[in-house]
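Consider a typical record:
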Amino acid sequence: MIKSYEPKFPQRPAFRSTYDGTHGAPMYAGELARPVPRLNAHWNCKQTTQLLNSYSASPCAVVCDAKERPIGLIMRDRFFLQLTSGDWLTMNNMPITRLMNEPVIVDVQCTLTQIKEQLIRLPMRPKQRYVVVTNEGKLSGVIVLDERLCPVEQ
């Protein structure tokens, strides 16, 4: 059974006028997180394709373990690119854990400033565009970062 919070990726305002936390009330990860589809760690690429096709507005999905803790991130565009570049039959049966990315995970109480600091400290890997938000260790949603919301200096 496919588990998810909502059938569509809602488009809510991503920030307030004091969104960076420096001039007024800070914004918390829980306020910015959007629901995304979640995948079971035992799924294969065929099941993941079906889920992503049914949630076409969602830019990503989160791979969770049996206790609903996030363990990986599947980005829609990258996933379909990988899927089409290989042998279809082999890729269909491949476990999704072989294609997932390591997520940046923050708690719902983390401020936007703290998220920026965590992203800047990442070792020499591409800066993440998606941040997985958890509440008591369980998936709460994903923040999709852009230059307005969370500019990260190189």
Notes: The chain has a mean pLDDT of 80. The chain has five helices and six strands. The two ends are 41 Å apart (CA to CA). Residues 29-144 form a domain with the CBS-domain fold (CATH 3.10.580.10).
